[in-house]
């Protein structure tokens, strides 16, 4: 059984340590200090350091943590699936936000980087939208109780924007009422119910786009309008 520990850093970045009883891997770790302290307290050995994608706000902590913990930085997505204490962690390619974006999946949780945020999705150049949509669909196909651990905490403003787009969505208000960070997390089921980027066929989403004067005739146009703002 592998656990996830979240480490907020910077303005709104979220780094992670995934671990069993003895072994750990860091994902987008941020400053080394709190991670090293947690490893020490739990008696954990850091086996490797990985990243959800190559943006510097996610990779900036790699080197100092590697030096402090004597762990290897493994290329993402080239490193592929890996194991901790015999338990497999699947590296799911989710290109879109960047060509090299990946998510880390273990039954029970997924670390989504800048691909999927709570009630929001990452930015994506227009030329990669189709592949980005497929990447989000791949995440949505995970079991609905899977905990979603995103790469940034944009939750407050994302929920506010979702409320403008889909004012009648009661599931979102229920999510807001029950939401108790830390950790900053939702589930795949929550995202299906509250994330406007994944709900482009909902009448309220279509109406909002039309009111905003955006092209909204096809699912593709609606997704583009939400992600790119045009
Ligand atoms: Fe990013």
List strands and helices in order, with pairings.
Layout: E1 3-9, E2 13-19, E3 23-27, H1 32-42, E4 45-50, H2 56-59, H3 62-69, E5 72-73, E6 82-84, E7 87-93, E8 102-106, E9 109-113, E10 116-117, E11 120-121, H4 129-140, E12 147-150, H5 155-165, H6 170-178, E13 186-187, H7 188-194, H8 203-211, H9 219-228
The chain binds fe (ii) ion.
Fe (ii) ion binds at residues 53, 55, 97, 114.
Alpha carbon gyration radius = 18 Å
State the secondary-structure class: alpha+beta
- Indicate the overall shape: elongated
The CATH architecture classification of the domain at 3-154 is 4-Layer Sandwich
- The level of helicity is 25-40%
Number of helices: 9
Taken as a percent bin, the fraction of beta residues is: 15-25%
List low-confidence stretches: none
Q: Mean pLDDT, rounded to whole units?
A: 96
Secondary-structure element pattern, one letter each: EEEHEHHEEEEEEEHEHHEHHH
Number of strands: 13
| Small molecules (ligands, ions, cofactors) in the structure | fe (ii) ion
Describe this structure in words.
With 230 residues, the protein is an alpha+beta fold. It has 9 helices and 13 strands. The model has no long low-confidence stretch (mean pLDDT 96). Fe (ii) ion (FE2) is lined by residues 53, 55, 97, 114.
Summarize the structure.
Helices cover 35% and strands 25% of the residues. It has 230 residues and is of the alpha+beta class.
Keywords summarizing the entry:
35% helix, binds fe (ii) ion, alpha+beta, five-stranded mixed sheet, six-stranded mixed sheet, 230 residues, 13 strands
């Amino acid at each position: 059984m592998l656990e996830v520990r979240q480490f907020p850093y910077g303005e709104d970045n979220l780094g992670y340590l995934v671990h069993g009883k003895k072994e750990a891997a860091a994902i987008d770790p941020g400053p080394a200090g709190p991670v090293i302290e947690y490893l020490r307290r739990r008696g954990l050995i850091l086996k490797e350091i990985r990243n959800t994608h190559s943006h510097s706000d996610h990779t900036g902590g790699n080197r100092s943590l590697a030096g402090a913990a004597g762990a290897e930085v493994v290329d993402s997505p080239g490193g592929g699936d890996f194991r901790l204490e015999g338990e497999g962690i699947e590296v799911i390619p989710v290109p879109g936000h960047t060509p090299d974006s990946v998510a880390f999946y273990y039954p029970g949780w997924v670390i989504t980087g800048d691909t999927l945020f709570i009630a929001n999705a990452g930015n994506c150049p227009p030329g990669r939208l189709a592949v980005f949509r497929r990447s989000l669909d791949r995440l949505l196909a995970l079991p609905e109780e899977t905990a979603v651990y995103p790469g940034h905490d944009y939750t407050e403003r994302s929920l506010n924007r979702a409320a403008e787009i889909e004012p009648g969505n009661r599931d979102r208000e229920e999510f807001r009422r029950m939401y108790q960070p830390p950790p900053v997390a939702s589930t795949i089921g929550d995202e299906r119910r509250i994330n406007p980027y994944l709900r482009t066929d909902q009448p309220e989403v279509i109406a909002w786009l039309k009111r905003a004067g955006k092209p909204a005739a096809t699912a593709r146009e609606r997704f583009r309008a939400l992600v790119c703002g045009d």
